Amino acid sequence: MKSPRRPELWGVVNVTPDSFSDGGLFLGAEAATAHALEMVEQGASVIDVGGESTRPGAARVTPEEEIARVIPVVTALAHAGVVVSIDTMRASTAAVAVDAGARIINDVSGGLADPEMFAAVAACDAEYVLMHWRGHSDQMDSLATYDDVVSEVSAEIHARVIAATEAGIDTARIIVDPGLGFAKTPAHNWSLLPHLSDLAPAGLRMVVGASRKRFLGELMPGDHEPSERDGVSAALGVLLAEAGVFALRVHNVSAHREALDVWQAFHEEGAS
Fold it and tell me: What b/e sequence results for 45-69 when a residue is b if at least 16 CB atoms lie within 10 Å of its CB, and e otherwise?
């Protein structure tokens, strides 16, 4: 039996002082660019650059600060031939980043945070990641209420995809993200994961960002840093590959590449 397609690895670079995993580590453009290029060497096909933390409770930054953080990195990576995704909820930042060479707009709000986002996406040729979202970081925990999390997240994603297409965005450019951890408890995340195929309209690709998140950390004993969650993250990555997701958004590219190497060899040898 043919194995599922191997998912792409999208390396995360947060040019921020306060992101939950790598905040402050790559705040300078040179450090962020060097880290991104290292991720590409390790197997990342896309680098996702963000200038505003979306961890629970994070405060927003000004559009000017966000642009100042990300554009030097986007420009340098695009000039190096790297496929860049800009992680932003703002249409203005997205437009400037696309002009600087970004080829994907990763909007964790699915167009809800900025009413101009869909128009900005429709006006360019970038691919668009549309994530399930209910509110900003300072309120999303209070919005994690569902009677049936699978059906409600599915319905909300479908509604946003319809709105995006009505705004002129071709469905071939849309990639769906279930938004693990965004207005969702650990129990909600685990309920969603076995039903990813039910969350997106038929034919749409899916990217999943589970790397180093709190719900995985809860499986580990004792106190630990998010960077110590790479093993459990890679293990889930293999299960997501089995589920046929298009891409994994990850912090440790090498760990996920090695886990997928084992998964791929298992399938290929089993089919021979």
Answer: ebbbbbbbbbbeebebbebeebbeb
What's the CA gap between 90 and 261, in Å, rounded?
36
DSSP states of 175-230 = EEE--TTSS--HHHHHHHGGGGGGTS-TT-EEEE--TT-HHHHTTS-S---GGGGH
Written as one letter, the residue type at 72 is P
Residue 2 annotated in active site: no
Distance, in Å, from the CA atom of 248 to the CA atom of 235, rounded to the nearest integer, reads 12
Among the listed residues 160, 205, 213, 229, the single catalytic one is 213
SS3 11: strand
pLDDT for position 59: 74
CA distance 202 to 185: 26
Amino acid in position 220? M
Is the distance from CB of 26 to CB of 35 less than 8 angstroms?
Answer: yes
d(Cα 24, Cα 92) in Å, to the nearest integer?
24
Average pLDDT over residues 11-18: 83
Q: Is 249 a catalytic residue?
A: yes
For 186-241, write each residue's pLDDT tens digit: 999 999 999 999 999 999 999 999 999 999 999 999 899 989 999 999 999 999 99
Q: Which of 69, 134, 173, 249 is catalytic?
A: 249
Rg value, the chain, Cα: 18
Please list, in sequence order, all residues whose beta carbon lies within 8 angstroms of the beta carbon of residue 149, skipping any fewer than 6 positions away. 184, 188, 191, 192
| Position 18 confidence tier, pLDDT thresholds 50, 70, 90 | very low
